[in-house]
Specification:
The structure is a single chain. The radius of gyration is 32 Å and the shape is elongated. By secondary structure, the chain is α+β, with helices and mostly antiparallel strands. The chain starts with a helix and ends in a 16-residue tail after the last helix. The C terminus is likely disordered. The protein has four domains: 169 residues, Multidrug efflux transporter AcrB transmembrane domain (Multidrug efflux transporter AcrB transmembrane fold), CATH 1.20.1640; 155 residues, no CATH class; 168 residues, Multidrug efflux transporter AcrB transmembrane fold, CATH 1.20.1640.10; 154 residues, no CATH class. This is SSD domain-containing protein. Keywords: Cell membrane, Membrane, Transmembrane, Transmembrane helix.
Length: 784
């Protein structure tokens, strides 16, 4: 293998100039593609399409409506809604919502839409009509009439605030714009909603406040927050460049790994466009990770190059070639391990996560080319002043003293103490990690901070209305005309009564409860007649006023959703409701009615949580399985593999324990952190152990081999660990909560993995190679 690598390096460095030209040409082409990169956000991409809940959701979406809604609440700052100004804004806003991109117009509901009606009992029978009649005029008499109609319609608390302080416009958003047939751009929808808010609040001088929630608005707010990511990216580049310059000592030496890492990012973004992909708002962090990983491996190459210069290589080309030969195998294995680790996220059958896996693995695979080939070629052209060797010598003298002392202290007794302490900490973390919660741990949208405008709007709507914003719909699948089958509707009524008592359930609406109300209306509204009549003709009479536009049944009465409005979408709330639904269905089997989970936005979240829970262990096993196999193939030693992998496992469980302490749930935005942390953390161990193993195979005493490994790679490992941590720690200040959480977790994993590679790995290796004991030599003298 050594001869093969030497022969290959000779071929590379004999063709330096043509290869540089090829790299420049590819970069120019990829840059033009990268400029055309688009933000590709989609509601359907966030759905785990293989999950039974989502299959039911998609199957009946066209009949009962989907989970992708936009809710616009107009709230009177003072007083109630019964003013000419408020009704004028509500009417105009309803008309504007009708023409938003992707809006399903028949599904729009507000006081001004014809599908919002009332029914009342009069002397001659029943009377009804639109809540706001055709002859409405803004007079006190008309307002009084509308107030009565709202109460009669049952929309108080649903479309109108409980205290009449506001009104809602609800709209279903569909992926395909019905006018153009193209997939809608959610950022355009969000911008249109924000423009609508600005118009209303400016025209009324703040007398009418607008609150907007829904998937489209989430995407818009996330995209707006993601624009701030560019600032963090710029700051990270500057900080990283300063740190690399401090490590390398020369600007041109520091610029080389920075430039090569940026080239990898350009290639990554250009390749995504060339393959027809966009970048999802939740994958926007990946290019920054690719840049950080590229710098990490680039610094290793700079460190090896600097060592060759320090030890007397004749020229930059010889030093770069020696560094290339030294790092090609360990660097290649580390990057291949990273790539496979990211690809393991494909086991999560959610398109958003799978695209993140493809984006990350593609970027890391390109680093394999830019940092292991382009970087040493660039270094070979650099001309360093002769005084640079003196600067390196003075810098290394301080580090070598520390490394010599650390290697000297790696005796069996201290090493065993380190191992025991690490495994006790790992055991405690493993025990605590069992408490981690799947899904969201807080109300509102977890991608945004609690004080964000969106989450404040969510709080306002949930506190002023009775419907809540998190809906889990249980689909009752029955026979045609099952809506007038006493056995079916009674079973629905029993289910509704049982589910209503659960903690976290705000209200429940179904055809059964609506039919009971209508039936009492036939008896002058008497509460004792609020029942489901057994007589088939009477039951038909109670159900017939319920139109399909209400979303409570389909055209032939064979599908009837039971809409459960939740107070929040926390993991425990969703789990308690879905468990109760499954329990009721198991206890009440019926040949006529099946209770199917689930539709509504909360139903989608419940399905996603179950997918994450199912994928949690497989993704960990795949990541560590890939690391185990590649480390074993690289080092051909079970002992070496354990030295590299066990510290990673301990740090992974420590990260889970940290999530428990910080109240961060395991969900689609945090699950990839494990793969990312392990994939990057393994690099430290591979680089250090590769140098340690080379010394042990030469027959060096363990202390000498460990000192040489620290001397050659330890400084670069410490530097890259701190550089990566500092770079991603900037994300903690982001407006996006999920980005701040990822930044915090990755900072922790980068630092602790680095400490594990420097402390725990040598301690374990010391016990696996006890026969290689001897007296540590003083640091190697500086060659001049």
């Amino acid at each position: 293998m050594t001869a093969l690598v030497h022969s290959f390096s000779g071929w590379v460095f004999r063709r330096r100039f043509p290869l540089v030209c090829v790299f420049i040409a590819i970069t120019a082409v990829m840059f033009t593609y990268a400029l055309r990169l688009r933000v590709d956000a989609s509601f359907n991409k966030s759905l785990p399409s293989d999950h039974p809940y989502i299959q039911n959701f998609i199957k009946y979406q066209s009949e009962i409506g989907g989970a992708n809604r936009a809710i616009i609440a107009l709230m009177a700052k003072d007083g109630d809604i019964f003013t000419p100004e408020f009704f004028d804004q509500l009417r105009r806003t309803t008309d504007e919502v009708m023409f938003l991109p992707g809006v399903d117009r028949p599904q729009v509901q507000s006081l001004f839409t014809p599908n919002v009606r009332y029914i009342e009992v009069v002397e001659d029978g029943f009377s009804g009509g639109n809540v706001i009649p055709a002859d409405f005029s803004p007079t006190p008499e008309s307002f009084a009439r509308v107030r009565e109609n709202i109460v009669k319609s049952g929309k108080l608390g649903q479309l109108v605030a409980n205290d009449f302080s506001g009104a809602i416009i609800s709209a279903q958003i569909i992926e395909q714009d019905p006018r153009t047939g193209r997939t809608i751009d959610y950022t355009q929808v969000a911008d249109a909603l924000e423009a609508l808010r600005s118009r209303v609040e400016s025209e009324t001088n703040g007398a009418v406040q607008v609150h907007i929630i829904g998937f489209a608005k989430v995407i818009g707010d996330v995209a707006a927050g993601a624009r701030g990511v560019l600032i963090f990216f710029g700051v990270s580049i500057v900080i990283t460049a300063l740190l690399v310059w401090n490590y390398a000592g020369r600007w041109k030496l520091a610029a080389a790994p920075i430039a090569c890492s940026l080239v990898a990012v350009v290639w990554q973004l250009g390749s995504l466009t060339a393959m027809g992909y966009g970048i999802d708002t939740f994958s926007i962090l990946v290019p920054f990770l690719v840049f950080a990983i590229g710098v990490s491996h680039g610094v290793q190459m700079v460190g090896a190059f600097r060592t060759q210069v320090f030890e007397g290589s004749n020229n930059s080309r010889d030093a770069a070639r020696a560094a290339f030969e030294q790092l090609l195998m360990p660097g290649g294995v580390a990057l291949i391990t990273d790539t496979i680790g990211f690809l393991t996220m494909l086991v999560i059958k959610i398109p958003t996560i799978q695209e993140l896996a493809i984006t990350a693995s593609l970027g890391v695979g390109l680093i394999l080319i830019t940092n292991l080939f382009l970087l040493p070629i660039i270094l070979s052209y650099l001309r360093l002043p002769w005084k640079y060797g003196e600067w390196v010598a003075s810098r290394r003298a301080r580090w070598d003293q520390m490394w010599a002392r650390l290697a000297r202290e790696m005796k069996p007794a201290p090493s065993m103490m380190i191992i025991i302490a690490a495994f006790l900490l790992g055991g405690l973390a493993w025990w605590k990690s069992a408490e981690i919660r799947i899904g969201d741990t807080q109300a509102g949208v977890p991608e945004l901070r609690q004080n964000s405008r969106y989450n404040q709007d969510t709080h306002t709507i949930t506190s002023e209305f009775s419907i809540g914003v998190d809906i889990l719909s249980v689909i009752v699948q029955t026979v045609p005309n099952g809506c007038v089958d006493y056995e079916v509707v009674t079973l629905m009524d029993d289910f509704e009564r049982r589910i209503r008592t659960l903690p976290g359930v705000q209200s429940v609406i179904s055809l059964a409860s609506a039919a009971k109300t209508i039936n009492s209306g036939y008896s002058e509204g008497s509460l004792k007649w609020r029942i489901l009549p057994r007589n088939p003709q009477t039951l038909v009479q109670a159900v017939s006023p319920i139109e399909t536009a209400t979303g409570l049944l389909n055209s032939d009465g064979s599908v009837m959703p039971i809409m459960i409005f939740l107070t929040d979408h926390k993991a425990e709330t969703l789990r308690s409701v879905t468990d109760e639904v499954k329990r009721f269905a198991a206890e009440n089997p019926s040949p006529k009615a099946q209770f199917l989970l689930a539709s509504g936005n909360a139903g989608v979240m419940a399905a996603t949580n179950e997918v994450v829970q199912a994928a949690q262990m497989p993704i960990v096993l795949w990541v560590f399985g890939a690391v185990l196999v590649l480390c074993f193939l690289t080092f051909r030693s079970i002992r070496a593999t354990l030295c590299v992998v066990l510290p990673l496992a301990i740090v992974s469980y420590m990260a889970y324990a940290l999530m428990v302490f910080l109240g961060i749930g395991l969900k689609t935005s945090t699950l990839p952190v494990v793969a990312l942390g392990v994939g990057i953390g393994v690099d430290y161990g591979i680089y250090i152990f590769a140098r340690l193993q080379a010394g042990l195979r030469r027959g060096d005493y363990f202390e000498d081999a460990m000192f040489n490994a620290f001397k050659d790679t330890g400084g670069a490992v410490v530097f890259t660990g701190l550089t990566l941590a500092i770079g991603v720690s900037m994300w903690i200040f982001s407006d996006l909560k999920f980005q701040a959480d990822m930044g915090l977790l990755l900072t922790f994993m980068f630092v602790v993995n680095m400490v594990g590679a420097i402390i725990l790995l040598p301690a374990m290796a010391r016990w696996f190679w006890r026969h290689h004991s001897g007296k540590t030599r003083a640091p190697f003298p500086v060659k001049t």
